[in-house]
Amino acid sequence: MNVFVTKGEGRGNLVFRALLKGLMEKDVVKVALVCAEDPTGNSFVHVLTGDTSVVESSWPVPPVMPVQGARVVSKITRKGPVELPTAVVLRPCELRAMRELVKLNQVKLDGLLTISFDCPGVYPLQQYLSGDRSFMKASIDEAFGHFDLSGTRPLCQICHRFTGELADVEVGFLGAPDEGHYLIGHTRRGEEALKALGYQEEVDLERRVDAVQEVIKQRIEAREGYFKGEFGPKVVGVEALLTTLHVCINCHNCMRVCPICFCRECFFDSDALKVLPGNYLVRAERKGALRFLPDTLLFHLGRMNHMSTSCVSCGTCEDACPNDVPVSRLFAMVADKTQAIFDYEPGQDLDRPIPFIDYQDEELHDYEEPYIESTTHRPSSS
Question: Which of 226, 243, 263 is the last residue of a domain?
Answer without folding.
Answer: 226
